[in-house]
Amino acid sequence: MRRAAFIAAMAALAWAGIAGGAPTPTDRPTPQVAIFYYAWYGTPTSDGAWEHWAQGGNAPPQAIGSNFYPARGLYSSGRPAVVRAQMREIAGTGVDTVIVSWWGPGSVEDGRLPFVVAAAQSAGLHVALHVEPWVGRTPQGVADALRGFAALGIRDAYVYDSAASPDEDWRSALQGLNGVRVFANTPLAGKALKGGFQGIYTYDVLVYDGSSFGRMCENARQVGLLCAPSVGPGFDARRATGDPRVRDRNDGRWYDHMWQAAVRASPDLVTITSYNEWHEGTQIEPARASNGLYACYDGAWGLDGGRAQRAYIDRTTYWVGKLRGALETPLRTGSKTSKSSKSQ
Asked: Rounded CA gap, 340 and 28, in Å?
């Protein structure tokens, strides 16, 4: 009888373990938040020429490769004072990690990386790399480069356009890489698993509108991968690249929509596209009106003028808190989204 009772008790415990295998909202780790950051801007005064502001054949400072104009003016990412101010601004939102765009060994971004890391860490932020598709990039070259960043405290890497190389090449390169979590740029957990990645992210806020986040994160959990869907305020690259596609900001409602979708997906991380990718109009860095030629954030959440310049930074603070509070408090959604031709 005692043996039968013991076996029954063990079976009950085993069943409870199976039934409760997925973490409940109370025992899941607190979700982290990371934001994509670009250190590729330059000015004649600081760098000898305009870097990136002239994209799309524009002639700064009168015309720049963006439909928006930065509130701090046209800046150089090579000036430590500018980078320190940006990192303090990011840290003030509650974001945990800055994902720095990196274009390979010897690039301008590579040269600036040490002081970007120092500024971020001084502000209490972690640093990850956004591994861009530089000419000649290979999975083995990426893995070899990542080994060299341990001294900078970089433990996460997000590989943009990872599907450009075969899964088996990624698996071979990454299997000997220890101490670094590498995320594949794909919503397909099975593909990332075949490539030996530890997680997935989407980056593109034009193609991925949030509707697939729940399924994406559930599939990632089933195969033991981390899920880091990307949210963003909108997309508008017309002035920089001529791309006619636009994801309207809808006075902030699109940003809310994407955050709501990400929170409902119960992600391990939320990635934000972006802090300052001005060319594609995904930035949340403060913007201001400029001679009526550039869009600004007026109208976002009912704000105008100086109060609107920080609208997306301040809303990020709200959503970071909402994400973390959602583990205990159900998210209440409200605002509807709509598509229009207005770009704010």
From this structure: 38
- Express each pLDDT in 150-176 by its tens digit: 889 999 999 999 999 999 999 999 998
Q: Is the dihedral of CA 117, 164, 215, 21 positive or negative?
A: negative
**Residue of 182, 189, 233, 254 whose CA lies nearest to 215:** 189
What DSSP state is assigned to residue 301?
G
Nearest-CA neighbor of 190 among 162, 225, 156? 225
> Which DSSP helix (H) or strand (E) runs through 189?
helix 189-194
* Alpha carbons 68 and 284: distance in angstroms, whole number: 11
Query: What kind and span of H or E run contains 34?
Result: strand 32-37
CATH: 3.60.15.10, 3.30.470.20, 3.20.20.80, 2.10.109.10. Which one for 29-325? 3.20.20.80
Q: Which of 161, 223, 218, 232 is nearest to 198 (CA)?
A: 223
Which CA distances in Å does 104 have to 115, 132, 142, 238, 255?
16, 7, 8, 27, 31
Kindly report, residue by residue over 51-82, the tens digit of the pLDDT.
999 999 999 999 999 999 999 999 999 999 99
- Report the predicted TM-score, pTM, of the whole model to 2 decimal places: 0.87
In the three-class reduction of DSSP (H, G, I as helix; E, B as strand; rest coil), residue 325 is classed as helix
Tell me the two tokens of residue 65.
Answer: 């490769």
